[in-house]
UniProtKB/TrEMBL annotation:
The keyword Transmembrane does not apply. One of its GO terms (molecular function) is translation elongation factor activity. The gene is tsf. It holds the Pfam family EF_TS. The lineage of its organism: Bacteria, Pseudomonadati, Pseudomonadota, Alphaproteobacteria, Acetobacterales. This is Elongation factor Ts. InterPro entries: EF-Ts_dimer_sf, Transl_elong_EFTs/EF1B, Transl_elong_EFTs/EF1B_dimer, Transl_elong_Ts_CS, UBA-like_sf. PROSITE patterns: EF_TS_1, EF_TS_2. It comes from the Bacteria. Keywords: Cytoplasm, Elongation factor, Protein biosynthesis. It comes from Neoroseomonas terrae. Coiled coil: none annotated. NCBIfam families: tsf (TIGR00116).
Amino acid sequence: MAEITAAMVRELREKSGAGMMDCKKALVEANGDMEAAIDWLRKKGLSAAAKKSGRVAAEGLVAVASAPRTAAMVEINAETDFVARNEHFQAFCAAVAELALTVGDDIEALKAARYPGSVDLIEGGTGHRTVADQLTHLIATIGENMSIRRAKRLHVSEGTVATYVHSAVKPGMGKIGVLVALEGASEEAVLETLGRQIGMHVAAARPEALDISFVEPAALEREKAVLTEQAKSSGKPDAVIQKMVEGRIRKYYEEVVLLEQVWVHDGESRVKAVVEKAGSKLAGFARFQLGEGIDKQTSDFAAEVAAAAGQG
């Protein structure tokens, strides 16, 4: 039997787009013949994954996972909402979220991590199926392009990191996910309840920054420029215009800064007042909404039919 080297596996992987474990198996089956291995992968439908990589994937799931004083969240995309109901896809999302608790939120590190439950490529070997390999396998098996788009992990030394998933399709998975890091010596159950309430607020109010100091300088300058031009149209003196802009900037902060926002649960209190009353500190948050920022392809079905018939 021909020796299957790491270089051969890498070459086949680059040519086919299939996972490492599948490439190793193909070479074994083909006794080291590269072309025969490619044919084997094609027959199994595994080399098709590379052909799907250019297709837009804006559906999928946001998944969260928790550990003591730590929580993680990932967004994993697919092409259609149908895949979000696939139990294999859901299991993959849950596994990657769990891995993010220890690996962290670097996407490349997550992709390189060993996929839970995977076996060695060869007996006594050190190779294993990575998260990237498992993703490639899913793409080939399910037949849609998929990607691990982003991840976030939050940790506190004292307190809790609460999670909230809006409209969950199953526990810990849905289309909007939120992490809320709360520091404090209060009972964990109390912090968890408050954290979940803040998570619901974040899901609804879509804050962009934790506090005023975290507002992106460029965004603030753009807002000031727009508000200044609007105020100048009033024809009032510069001193009055300056005060008008300052007032409108305060309003801007109330819209985009979490701690300055009105608490959605009572419509009166500020979030910072609610947190202070609980004797805790809001150390950070993250909000993922499935597909946000992705340019989705839209099509006019009637126009497509007309074009196909030579009328468009």
